[in-house]
């Protein structure tokens, strides 16, 4: 689990360290007419490189995840899912060339299951 999903650090496969800072979370219908929740990040690398990335969480997928895990669909859940997915993308250097990154329902489901198992481990 990421201790602070609003600002965290992650290493890429090339040995660079990236700092990921949450910029905003917004309903995508208002900015690009998409049925999604966009979570925008500022990424800065220790070599001076800066990037902006948006993790677009498909709204029907979010509803399904919330239903499956009996959770309320909140900004916090969206930020945690987006942060966890961005961490995976940078760690594996997948989809990082894209400005808008779209995780699938299965990928979001895997992250939500991981959250549940980590939370359960903390309560033991």
Topology (elements, then pairings):
Elements: E1 7-11, E2 17-27, H1 29-32, E3 36-45, E4 50-58, H2 59-68, H3 75-92, E5 100-101, H4 105-123
Keyword list:
124 residues; alpha+beta; 5-stranded mixed beta sheet; 4 helices; 5 strands
Could you write a compact summary of the structure shown?
The protein has 124 residues and is α+β, with helices and mostly antiparallel strands. The chain has four helices and five strands; from the N terminus they run ββαββααβα.
Describe this protein's structure.
The model has no long low-confidence stretch (mean pLDDT 92). The chain is built from 4 helices and 5 strands; from the N terminus they run ββαββααβα. Helices cover 41% and strands 30% of the residues. Helix 2 runs parallel beside helix 4. Strands 1-2-3-4-5 form a 5-stranded mixed beta sheet. The relative contact order is 0.18.
